[in-house]
Every structure is written in C-alpha cells, then in structure tokens.
C-alpha cells in the first residue's frame, strides 16, 4: 500500500511538472513568433536581443484580464461612487487651477476643455499617483500569447518594441498597467505611436515625467478622434414613461425630436434642445437609476475606453469639476451583485437565444443588451440590474422553454 501511494504521488508530481513545462513551451513558441513579427516590422536584432532578454510570462495578468476571482461584482453606482469620490473631486479642482495656463493652451489648440482632460487624468492614474508597476513588455507578451485577444496585443507588443528601437521609448521606463497602458494618461503603445506629441518641445515624448506631453497627447488624441469643440458629452434627463427605456442603448440612436416625442425631458422639464445629430438614451442602472442623453463627444471618449460606465464617469466628473451639480437620481442601497448570479443570468439568456458570447459573471454592455431584449420580448418593465427579480423571471422563462441551467463548480462553492 505504501509503495502504491508513492507511485501515485510521483505520477501526480510528474503530471504537474509536465503541465508547467507545456505552458512554458507554449509561451516560448509564442515569444519566438512575436520576435519574428517585430523583425518583419523592421526592429533591429540588437534591440530584439535586449528587449526579449528579460520577458516573463505573467499568469496574474491573464487572471485580471478575465475579470479576476472576486465573488462580488460592482454595479454602475458602486463604480461611479469610486470614480467621483469627494477626495478625487477636491484634488481635481485644485489641479485644474494649478495647471490652468497649460490646460487653456491645450483648449485653444485642440478644442478640448480643461475639465475633460483633468477628469481623464484622474480616472486613469489618480492624477499621476499610480502609473502601474508591471513590466510593459511582460504584460503585452502575456496577453499576446493568450488566445482571447492575441491579435490586438501582438500589435501592441510590436509597436512597443518598435518605439524602443526608434529611440522613442526607454526600455527602463516600460512599466505600467496590467494591460500595457503607460504614463499619466495610460496610453497603449499603438496609441502612443500614432497620437502622442512632444508638447513641451524638448525633443522627446515623455508620458511619465512631462505633464505637458501627457495632457497634450490626450488632447491631440481626442481631437483626432473627432472631438466637437463647444459641445458637451451628454446630460442627465428624465422620462415620462419608463417603457421608453426599451428604445435605449448605446447603439440605438434617434433624432432629438423623436426623443422629445417619446417624452424624454431635461431635468427642468423642458424639451431637449434641437440639434442635427442622432443621439442615444442610456440607463446604465436600469429604471431605478439615472438616465442620460449622450451626444457625439460621448462617442469620441468611447474611442479612448469602450466602457459606457467609464465614459459616463469621465463626463460626470468633468461636469462636477466645471462646477456642475451632482446627479439628480439617488443611488440604491445595493451596489454590487454576486458573480455567480451574473453567470446564471448569462447562461439563461444564452439558452433562450440571446447574444451572450462569454459566461464570466460580469454584467457589461453585451449582457445588458441581452437583458433588455429579453425584457422587451417578455413584456416586462425594462430594467438592467442583475437583481433577484430579473433572475426569477429568467428562471421561469427557461423552465417554460424546457431548459435546465446547471450550477457550475464555481457556483457550487460560492458563498450564499
């Protein structure tokens, strides 16, 4: 019996070692491919030898990219409270005054108001207080070698190495976020390569130590993406009938007059101002949260970060920095939900035929769109929050359709 136990333990150890070796071999093969891509892009052999000498795989980066392991997920309200905290607002207002001469020059040259640049700076790095400390090439190589977004991060990696080769980046400076974003404004390498500017005219673009370069690059990027000077991002509104929210969503644009006809009103009760653009109605927290009309500059900020919650936080923080009022809508008591519930919601929606490509428990834009579609089809009041009421409706719909949604192992071990 003792000998059998030893044999079993040795076999298990060898299996584990084999798995580690396989993963390591796979990363090595991927690095070789990245080296070839960089070489084909014109990067010199000497640069490649130096850049690749210390690259390491970072499993923690992949875990973060896939949403981490936390049992609970923040809702829009929780995200907003963290993004526009009293401390961040106070610090942002002080920095707005401290750097006003620079910010006004950028406003005159690029058309982007100071409060937007400061809001982006605050959300990205807490006004330069935390750039991230992960070696950028490690992060980019790890994500390039992960199947989920390999093509995108391969391009980012090659552009980062190319800028080192061109002398535009110092290899020693390359530390930042888990996703490879760098400096005050957290530019990705490809964005830096095409849109960063040497605003302080010292002959070198430095997004870490030169605030003029960092904020100037941010302003240049927004301008190049189509920023409309003199226009705002959007505004909080109210609706006469919550059923109107069924027509909402980032991808659903209508002329302003149609929204007026549907009963959408400004907070003072007046009609939305006339404009030629088609605009979107957003209800990120469902019928019990704030409702927004978003204008073209909202879509410009989406080119910076494709999260609607992030863009709303930028716009709302910018409004507060410019002296605007807090949100009219009030936050509910519940500001987070269990990831296990999020996964169950996604599995129900997927089985019922709605567009869900990933069962990760995070109720983002795709899941909210599917929730809204389900609620419309079921002729239920439109809401986007992953609460017990929604889960109950989905369970009933799946049961009527003859579907069974089993718990996965993660759900079975989650806390009640």
TrEMBL record:
A GO MF label: peptidoglycan lytic transglycosylase activity
Signal peptide stretch: 1-23
Biological process per Gene Ontology, one example term: peptidoglycan catabolic process
Domain Peptidoglycan binding-like: 341-394
Signal keyword on record: yes
InterPro entries: Lysozyme-like_dom_sf, MltB-like, MltB_2, Peptidoglycan-bd-like, PGBD-like_sf, PGBDSf, SLT_2
Keywords from the named record: Signal
SUPFAM superfamilies assigned: Lysozyme-like, PGBD-like
Domain Transglycosylase SLT: residue ranges: 27-319
Protein name, per record: Lytic murein transglycosylase
Source organism of the structure: Candidatus Macondimonas diazotrophica
